[in-house]
Fold this sequence. Notes:
Blueprint: E1 6-12, H1 16-28, E2 33-36, H2 65-78, E3 82-84, E4 87-92, E5 97-102, E6 106-117, E7 121-123, E8 139-141, H3 142-152, E9 159-163, H4 167-178, E10 182-188, H5 197-204, E11 211-213, E12 215-221, E13 228-233, E14 246-249, E15 252-255, E16 259-261, H6 264-268, E17 293-295, H7 306-333, E18 334-339, E19 343-347, E20 350-352, E21 361-367, E22 375-381, E23 384-391, E24 400-404, H8 409-413, E25 418-424
Helix pairs in contact: 1-2, 1-7, 3-4, 4-5
Amino acid sequence: MKIKQKYDVVVIGSGPGGLAAAIAAKKTGCDDVLVIERDIELGGILLQCIHNGFGLEILKQDLPGPSYAQRFVSEALGLGVETLLDAMVLDVSPQRRIFATSRKGGLYDIEARSIVLAMGCRERTRSQIRLPGPRPAGVFTAGTAQRWVNVEGYMPGRRFVVLGSGDIGMIMARRLTLEGAKVERVVEIMPYLNGLMRNYVQCLLDYDIPLQLRHTVNRIIGNHRVEAVEIVAVNDRWEPISGTEEIVPCDTLLLSVGLIPENELSRKAGVLLDPLTGGPFVDDHFQTNVPGIFAAGNVVHVYDLVDWVTEAGYIAGRSAAAFAIELRRWENRHMPLVAGENVRYVVPHELDRESLTMGAVRIQLRVKQPIESPVVVELRNGEDVLVKKGEPYARPGEMITLTIPSKVYDLVQKASVLSVHVVQR
């Protein structure tokens, strides 16, 4: 499929928020909707979430992630949403210009009447939580391990400790147990659970995996591969309590220590970010401070349920479509006035088609070269002359005025470009 130069709505990201936005934009009346996805297929993070619990609110069904995603992938493609896969967006301008690249297509320069940012979020890494110790193999984020086990078919280890009680960490504790691994415990620095209670019950309690609150990993032990971690209790200021250290043998440490909205592109587009959520400031239409740029899903803030991400995508998609439709209407209403034969420039540069309903419109121009004999000033649509006026001569130093009367309104509506010419009689 050939990528167009201009689209009504461009959605960046094809997770639940992005797919919902594209579907809503199409249903609202936008003809040209494009989804740009950096992976080789649509669906986003849902493709590696093979556990159930998706769709309970939106679809009234209990589905695994890939099944939930496929419902929306099929609907989007069925509506004619265009896709650009295996492509990376490099830049987004405040004027809604998108630069992307792919191995097959090279560099893309795409204009959008509106944009929906739906890049999702990423996991915090070891360096972001300043976890001390050497740098052996066997330290992964929970999402990385999830993709390896569920998609790639690899087991990252056999004996695990999970740092953080986020949902992905608890879900992976259960998943690894089902694959025959031993999960020693889940360690949480806060005095409360950071994920959903249902995941605590279904993933930890049901599989006898211990959860230690007010504890953290103090250091990692091992040179080439993780051999153990030192776990320690913390006080109210999250400082290690001396004498509570415990060495827990393991070969893998999984980090489930929070998610960060993916907003590098948002910054490039001039979008203001909330320092608390890490996502854009948005209104109730999910429009950012940059007109025509909307955001939906985990790129705004991290949601508990994918159903809520989908609902946000619907709102953002409808709002982006409404913006694009209004902008397209404005673009269609304004028609270029271009300089033709022996005309240096014309003012105004565009004509509002509806101005003629309120009376005649006056345009002014200057010629390139003097003509010291009678001339005709013509307003044309292609070869058809709509308005003409005679002048005894034409000189660059003397402005010429041409009036477009209201009676040519119907003829103007049929034109796409109007040109002004000054020719000898």
